[in-house]
Amino acid sequence: MPFNFKDIGSTELIEASAPCRIDMGGTLDISTFYYPLRHLAPCTFNIALNLRTQVKLCSYDSGQVKVSSKGFESAVYSLKDAPFDHPLGLMFAIAAYFRLEGVHILIESASPPKSGLGGSSAAAVALVAACLKMLKAVDVKAFSRQQTAILAHHLEAAVAGVPCGMQDQLAAAWGGVNAWYWHGDIKKPFFSRKTIVSRQSFKSLEDNLLLAYCGIPHESRNINSRWVQQFISGQYRDLWVEIVECTKKFIDAMMCKDLKKASALINREVSLRREMTPEVLDEMGEKLVASAIENHCGARFTGAGGGGCIWALGEVEDIGRLKPIWEETLSDRKGAFMIDVKIDSKGLSY
User: What is the gyration radius of the CA atoms in the chain, in angstroms?
Assistant: First the structure.
């Protein structure tokens, strides 16, 4: 039997929020990759950003679910008719999982829509938490951060139509600067977390980072699908082995605060990705990456690339020299802009 917001909502408005992220080594968190490569100890790295996606639940017409999110047309469906392949289908899938109706789901994100920063996964984590918060009134127990992230990931993978990684949900749940290790061993938890930068050092690291939105949205499933199909068919597996090694060495360099080495490893990883899928960088992305390399920085697309955002890492003086160059480059495209980088320490909040 469905739960109606009017009947069990303990407050007029229920809220939860979670951060977006920038990343390195993505795709290795997809089981297609980490099971066959488990002997190499594959891992991914991400930095949670204080670009939070906020989810609000409020009352709506009985028997209906409405979802509203900036950059998308609002949609209203009953649970039995809600399409999970809709642009907002993941939110309807989560409502269906909890049998929640008579509710308006409002999503407000500080990041641009389809920017490659993991906004949809952050929204899913926040929505799962908000639903649990509401259902507390009917004795549904709260989840841990890990359980919330796992459920959000499983629901996204169930409706995405392509294999999905889990690092975005984990960054949203925990916040901070972390490495995630993908064990592929049924005798162990399938992932583990290592803190790479302490909260006390976040402000210092922020001075070593730049983030730019290229002005056009990305579509991660297209490039991700290419990588998955190539890997399954046996193509480029030597490159994926090197991507694993690049990511592991990058994490080591970040722990040692060797930004020169870390930057070089970012650039090598991007070159390997471009060899497999040249379209991972659009024209704007190519210019931003080239100028970063010229100024002794590393630069990488976020998520699966193909538009969205590019982030850079470097010594303070190199980043300072690169920033006005990026600003001038972005001025050539309407809708492109720099994003202020602040590292999130909270993770999921509700």
Answer: 20
pLDDT tens-digit readout, 263-295: 999 999 999 999 999 999 999 999 999 999 999
- Residue 314 Cα distances to 206, 209, 292, angstroms: 10, 7, 9
pLDDT score recorded for residue 7? 79
Q: For residue 33, give its domain range.
A: 3-195
- What is the number of structural domains in the chain? 2
Answer yes or no: do 218 and 257 share one domain. yes
- Which of 163, 195, 227 represents a domain boundary (last residue)? 195
Q: What does the pLDDT look like over 103-126, one tens digit per residue?
A: 999 999 999 888 899 999 999 999
Domain-embedded: residue 263: yes
With b meaning 16 or more CB within 10 Å and e meaning fewer, what string describes 173-199?
Answer: bbbbbbbbbbbbeeeeebbeeeebbee
CATH code of residue 40: 3.30.230.10
Which pLDDT belongs to residue 184? 83
Identify whether residues 180 and 89 lie together within a single domain: yes
Residue 318 has pLDDT above 80, yes or no: yes
- For residue 316, the tally of other CB atoms under 10 A from its CB is 11
Dihedral sign, Cα of residue 100, residue 104, residue 110, residue 112: positive
Average the pLDDT over 125-141 and give the result. Answer: 88
What are the distances in angstroms from CA 279 to CA 33, 115, 119, 184, 200? Answer: 21, 16, 22, 30, 38
Return the closest-CA partner of residue 262 out of 304, 292, 240: 292
Angle, nearest 10°, between helix axes 119-135 and 145-160? Answer: 120
